[in-house]
Amino acid sequence: MYGINIDSLNPHCVTSFAENQVFVWDMRNFDKPFVVLNHGKPVVKAAWCPTRYARHYLCTKTIEHDIFTISYISFLNTFRSGLLATIEKDSSFITLYDVHHATLSVEEADQAVLERRLSPVYAPDVESNKISPLSSFAWHPQEENLVTTAAVNGD
Question: Which of 35, 87, 94, 139 has its CA 20 to 30 A from that of 146?
């Protein structure tokens, strides 16, 4: 195992990574991971987003008049866990996984993990005209879904 990280918004959810795989565990059931994420290259970092919000409907109220209807919807912003970022060795992008909907299941086919790739915006290397691979990243502790990256060339 190369690393471990606990989801600050769901302390039962832990991720570990080794070689080309990331494992998501429920600490209440360590028999097997409930999500296994396969990568093409070795994973060098994995971290949970600490500020993931979900917007829920709190209540709906409708007032009907003779001519029009007014509907009020109140929203409640709550924290939710489940956004995991990873980088692979010699990669110029971050892979995001939304594992919020994945459930503990015997059947791996029941896993519902959304995947998205993010490429940081910075200029390519002047000599090679290539984007430098990422060396690390860090989630902002307060700004929602904001991540800072560092590249091998110092960008």
Answer: 35
| Two tokens, residue 125 | 């290397």
Spacing of C-alpha 81 from chain mean position: 8
Q: For 23-47, how does the pLDDT look when each residue is reduced to its tens digit (9 = 90+)?
A: 999 888 888 898 899 999 999 999 9
d(CA 114, CA 109): 14
Please state whether the predicted TM-score (pTM) of the whole model is above 0.90: no
What are the chain's domains?
3-51+80-151 (2.130.10.10)
H helix intervals, 55-145: none
- Nearest CA among 37, 8, 149 for reference residue 99: 37
